[in-house]
Batch of 2 targets.
Target 1
Amino acid sequence: MNTPFLDINNISKTFGGVRALTNVSLSIESGEIHGLCGENGAGKSTLIKVLGGSVRPETGSVTINGQPLPLGSVPASEEAGIAIIHQESAAFPHLDTYDNVFVGREIRRFGGVVLDRARMKTETATLLARLEQRFDPRTPVGDLQPAQRQMVAIARALSRNCRLMVMDEPTASLSTRETGVLFRIIRQLKADGVSVIYVSHRLEEVFELADRVTVLRDGRKVDTVPTNAIDRAGLIRLMVGRDVSDARTREPSVRAGVVLDVDGLTRADAFTGISFQVRAGEVVALTGLVGAGRSEVARAIFGVDGRDSGTVTVNGRTLIPADIQAAVQAGIALVPEDRQRSGLAAPMSVKANLSLAVLKSLARVGIISDAKEDALAVSMMNRMAIKAENTEVAAETLSGGNQQKVVLGKWLAASPRVLILDEPTRGIDVGAKAEVYDLIGKLADGGTAILLISSELPEVLRLSDRIIVMRSGRISGELPREEATQERILSLAMPEGAA
Amino acid sequence: MKALFRRYPHEWILVGLLTGLLLAAWRLDPPFVSVGTQAELSTHIWEMALLTVPMTLIIITAGIDLSVGATMALCAVVLGMTFERGTPVAVASLLAILTGLACGFLNGVFVAKVRVHPLIVTLATMSAYRGIAEGLSLAKPVSGFPASFAFIGRGEWHGISVPGLIVALAMLAAWVVLNRSVLGRFLFAIGHNETASRFSGVPVDRIKLLLYSLAGTSAGLAAVMFVSRRNTAKADIATGMELDVVTAVVLGGASLFGGRGRIVGTLLGVLLIHETREYVSWRWQNDELILVVIGALLIVSVLVNTLLTRRQAVS
Amino acid sequence: MTVSFRNLAARRETGVAVLLGLTVAVVAGLNPAFVSGANIRDMLVQCAPAAIVGCGLTFVLLTGEIDISLGSMMGFLAAVMGLATSSQYGNLPAPAGIAITLAAGTAIGLLNGVLVSVGRVPSIIVTLGMLTALRGLTELIMGGKWISGIPPGLRYLGTGTVIGVPISIWVAAVTVVLAWLFARETPAGRRIYALGSNPKAAVLAGLSPTRIKLFVFALTGFLVAVATLVGTTQLSVIESGIGVGFEMVVVTSVVVGGASINGGKGTILGMLLGVILLGIVRTVLIFLNLGETSVYWERAIQGAFILVAVLMDHLASRRKSAEVPT
């Protein structure tokens, strides 16, 4: 194969003064699985959107299978055989599954005027079966679990007989078993001569699947290397531009008094009989497969959702259910999973976001003291090494990692007794991850009781003192860190009888 | 100076339009811009101006209240009917204001507790409250209020118009809240991201309940002012008032999606609508033309604002 | 497995249908004349304009937008129609009048659509401004006078019958059926739902929000013109107060029928049920013989309907959450 299947040439794109991509060129062979890595803000999403046609670059060209690709047109990209599985949820919750699979390319009858539902349903069922999913294609997507929604997105891409499939963080919400199914599909595609671009922060996956990997940094291509010619540290070095040591493992802490006491927490359809304790200075990890109910438990503790029975006690005081105010008063803080939606008021300044949880304490008779607020913001920015021009810039201009630090900083300002972290390093680049781990360690050392919800087992093993595993809404086991291994955790997390 | 313009472009455009209008009026019809005339004309605007204050706060939280006109009508009816049955006018006024509070509180309950979109709730209560006003009063007006009552709507206190003073105080209070207070910051946070605000411990439900109750109470107060000034209370007053109020607030630069809004802007919006309306009426004696102008003004102002913000973001 | 999204929508339509059925049954029981052929015909004629326009508004709401200029549009189009065809003014023949009215309605709708999709002005603002401006424009062009002398060809639209059924009912029925088929069975219909369900994903899927929104607003303008043609021609004069408050009735009906203000959710069937439920309130009040003052409560009851409807939704989905409702 002398001419590559996909040739990306000198692509540049600027969004309102920010250079998202600068002269990026790379080429991909037929039937190649090509990894794409880079920190957040490196330009991966923009490059994918250029390939998909929803973004038009200022300069550059793309040739696919020898033909130039008309840029900036989704239909043209689809016509050329490019299928994109996007990171953000690109599903239509009100529509049925088969609608979701076919929107934009509906199968028609009667001269193209009417929908051919029967055919769309059967084809969707076939695709779902190939992905080992068993639900009815008539199910509205809004009723599906995140993992199933992701499978629908994959089905949509597969329905296209594409020549190039691009996947952006496809395993973020998938269980281990489903990830295995996805990998099998990807290898099948490769065998069929389809090229795959695989974007992921999970470097183990890139190493397992990809033939070559391209690294982007600050909108430019750094290098393209075969995956057997580089190791993890080397890849990270390319991505970050410097040596970043994986944060050192935390020393187990001294046991102190119980701060958070959860007893018999139950809510129908979500979790049953959840009981555990967290002591001051302890990091307890709550882990399990996606859908096990961990976030639901966290939300119930924090008062976002209600509960059917059970109690939550902080330092001896029992909390009123479903009352965020009460939880905050008692000293609980929650850093939610979805920081864009629930963590930050993105258009507001970094300063305003940092002070939001403690605003009353910065005010007298309801009037905010500018001096106190400024002092808080500056001190937080320094303490957490938040990279921003100053405290006045809008939070949305920060990178993902720095945004997460702002969310953390907001709660640190409140000196919480209990800090609940839900997937705190999701979508954060390697450099910022290490800094967040450091912060968590320091907080625990300072006496905060920490409940860490995470699906990343290496992270769990590195940070926690105790690991509680949930399975289908119940606690299936508890392991002190010394006895925990990835295998033991997984076996507690997987459905009974699974491999 | 240029920096000041850069920071408040919208308000400066409004000032420009207002100045342009007044200058043109001064050239063509000098008596219009005399202090006497303006003072006389100002009496038309006080109720609307008062209602723009809570509306600004509500719109900043990405809410809206379309029921203020209907609430005002219902309060006026309560005022009239209780007075008619022998209640002293002061007590009747208090009852009217309490009615407004109750109406606003009901809105607040549906928005904050039942979690229904405020557009839907206030659309419903707009019909409901107006309907109740019509049902109760059978569309019959009440007049014959005591002369002393006119103080609120038409009186003067040390030379300053009483209703004008009420509006000024309300705007001042709102300015302090929005620019300096914890509550004000919470309002902007809710408007930008309600979920994140909730998750940050902001008492969102309580605040919304407060805001809509405040709007209702203001409508009650506005009803008292109106009835006192016009010496008549009936169920069809303030028809279309809510549209005027929303138009003034949006004209003033607030975004219906929340997170943006300034009292100065609202004030300018009120002034612009007021002067436009009065001048057109003065010169052409044509009430219909005003509607066209205001409708177009609303759309154009938002259009221009959107273009400006996009230009800013790109540069 | 429970298909709860669908169930919820179905529940709303069922709830409204049940409420409607009960109301009719109760009133008919108390006053059998309520279900006489003549009365049913009158009630349906009353509901026809709202049903026609409701089709368009449902699509607008589905895309996540709103249109509150409907009543002012109707008033304006009535004036245009009247001025064009009245023997005292334009004196154009009825077919010309029909064409002009339809064109004008579509044009106004298109203007709304352009301002919303290209100008990026929020639809509540555009249609609020349009509501005000059109009302003023209507009064201006009518010069404070009523228009009479409408040609018999046009009056036939409002008063004529085919097989004993008034034309307005026929037109409404055809419109509703076509709209229903369009929403359920065509790709374009599905895409309207998709756009409202997830605007970002719609763009990624290659849909054009601009084109879809232009279409739904223009369609609504066209349908308002249709409703004007069959609705306002029932009277022999065109006066300037036509259509005042109409948008509130239609929006209320559509929302009661289950459409969501956030887009993506709503059905033509729900809209129809909502229109009928709200449309018969006045007649119900009359037939319940509660005295002549009871009709003053019509508006209050219509308002109460929305509140009841949303309360029902809330009680049905009682799982409390801190998320902003969709």
Target 2
Amino acid sequence: MKVATAGGAERQVRTMCRLCLNRCGIVATIRNGKVVRIDGDAANPYNQGKACAKGRAGFYTIDSPYRVTRPLRRTNPRKGPGIDPGWETISWENALDIVAAKLKEIGADDPRNLWRVTFDRSLLDEIWCAAFGTSLQSLSSGFFCGNAVHPLHFLNQFAAEAVPDVPLTRYILSVGGQFGAVVHYDTMNGAFELGRNRERIKVVVVDPLCSHAASMADEWIPIRPGTDAAFLLGLINLLVNELGLYDAAFLKTFTNAPYLIGENGHYLRDPATRKVLVWDMASQTARPFDADGIDFALLGRYRVSGEEARPALQVIADGARGYTPEEVSRISGIPAATVRRIAQEFGTAASIGATIQIDGRELPYRPASVTWYRGLSSHKHALMNGFAVMLLQTLIGGLDVPGGLMGYHRVKYRTTEDGLLATIAHPGRVGSGPGPTNPYPPRTVTPPQSIDLFELFPVACYSRTFAVKAILEPEKYHAPIRPKMLLQRRSNMAFTGAGREIMTEVLRSVPFIVSFALEIDETAEFADVIFPDLHYLEQLEPGVSGEYHTGSQPATFYGSRPVSRPPFDPPWDRLVSHDEILLELADRAGFLEDVYAAGNAMWKLPPAYALKPGERYSYGELMNRALKSVHGEDKGLEWYKKDAILVKERSVEERYPGAFPKPRIHVYHEYMLEAGRQVDALTRELNIPWDTSGYVPLAEWRPCPAHEPKSPEFDLYMITAKAPYHALTATGSNPLLREVGLRLGYHEIALSPEAAKRKGLKNGDWVEVETDSGKKAQGRLKLTHAIHPEVASVWASAGRWANSATQGKGPLGIHFNSLLTLDDEHLDFVSAAIDSCLRVKISKLESGH
Amino acid sequence: MIEARIHFFGPIRGLIRKKQQLVVLEEGATVRRLLDELGRANGPEFRRYLVLEGATVNPALVVFLNGESLDEILDLDAPLPSGPRVDVMLASPILGG
């Protein structure tokens, strides 16, 4: 579309924002070849035609003076933060040859020694890695993403994530997450639906910090960090044992709540058929779960073949009984009366037994949701936190039904022999995102083969934090892989990984590093060769198989299209994707035909579009074939370049699959026992020190290391929180967003006035923070009542030190990850999460900053 | 006879040190028989990783037969697809892990 304006002809191009994982549809306005404005795409229901402040400001980095515009090679072999790499400009030919030769050398030895890291993967990234013989990792997500979130939503919702069905819900309990406020995947849709329906919904946010989400809630409940599971189990105790507010009909039909549990914690099985047994109230006998006409018992104690057996729900009820409101209050700091009130409110709002008419169908109506994220997932015992939150939502029958918690990024599922739901793997994908990683059935435990010891994590969705451990201590962990080369793009692992000191050691241990870099960030600073990367507004990348949908919205297909030309001359007419460089490297290193073979298999290309050995295909032709194979002959690359959006209404069955028959889901995690046994046996056999005490079938609250400080002087917890004006490190160098952050105190330490008074501190003081593991940082205080009095908080993504991010002005704020402790005490050996609530002391810097 | 051409993708290539393998099996051979044969031919380390238990293969491995996921076939004792040639893709985690 072209519009004549006083400033010259304007045109508008539809594309996709890539600054966070919400991937909003946007429209860029271009005048005289320059992007002058970004708006939400009104035709895109996924983000309701809206864009956030980050997305609207995204074009301010296109012309950054820090952009890399030529391939670079380091001349100084010494690597480290602040050490001048002595960059020299080299030709594209030279850069491609150097990197291809390294790939050839590593591929001929053991291709797993290529560590391929990105947080912004493309379709081609996956087949390129498959063809080379390595895996595609996003190391840093292990430090900030959904270690516990993804497995639980795959388990009970065959989806990577879940969000409240906002138009129909009446109650949202947000625990350790910022639904509708930050870079959670449903940000725009969630924010605008909440705004429209605000007066009909009660929003309660439970968080140590009155975050941006909490500031817009009806109620903020400050909680002591790392005690969320106790609070949730307190609600479960009241709902099941006192109030009787749970969906018994749903639990009997669609969950393993009636499965009989024996004294050893395992299912009771029929000795002959091995089928799981349930108690039939009608015949007063134990019968196979799938027998006809059973009147399922959910509670009670029964004798079966001389053994006492309880239905899983009774085991849950018994386990939760210890979490009285008073005990929850002691652990979490939340008043007992508040625990009681929230349980009553949530259980009542769930409207057990209610139905609603949608598209002429009568469906269950459960208008209450509990949402969660990093606040629960980044802890020791993270999976147990996940068990608790998923159990609460499952007890009310509020999964994927109107008003309830809606899964998205759905995958296919099957029914196991025990009648339970298990997701079906997409070829080669075992990570988060669209690739399902169901903890059930657990993967068989085998000796480590992966860089991150993934084989020792049978129920986790990834174990990336342990890549750091395995690289630094390979003998201890029987790690088979010693990375000889790192190829990274859009994953600022030096900053978002295990902290500056540890990541320096890790990156120094890798002999050859190649970065695709828009600017030289903290990680590219370690590179041996750098390729200039494209700005996301310069790239062509159809989503191909990716349909985006959230809540009950239609499914929408769209993707990235170039709206601006890169400020460099590649060896092609015009570079539109870093994938073109990967294809060229594959050709020069001799595995291009393997890439085609992997594409045929993993993209499921039908014969008409299959890639033939001996042929050569451009990046555009590959995308053309991938598009046509998914969307039809008339929807190839030309269509994509012209239109680039498909919106499909979803049927009521697609929108609300929880209302229709499907396999049973978990309230009791019996599979954990066998998974733990296998991990224990193998790690003993290999003499790998490993903690398997977290393999339990039910949620329980266990203290984090921070709850038992090494000395009383460490009298504060320290946490980190996401702010709505920054997304990881993708926005740090945006001058506009940097300015916004500085005005809002992005670089300061939040502390309550009570805590400050106790310690003789005042607003604006420069202080030293020291963790009980001896790690130190300095920062400036900002006193606020919007924080739990036992807690100090810093903002995620603060403390950048790369010149491009600080714009030459030096770091501002505390880099939280540099305060983390990556030891056995702080790592979760089940979910691979690292505990992110710290115990600190804060003292005034007498000399000032 | 059935000629099964197995393509190895992802990190499993580093373990097995090959890209492809041809296995000739009798007519009516099952998926289990094919995987057993692969295990026998490729040493104990690979065999331990392959793991055939009950009706399924180690969920860390992804097996596709002529483009169809083994998880959807769901039965290791099902016969291999009919026809003289079967294309098998055996991958270990490529994404994630």
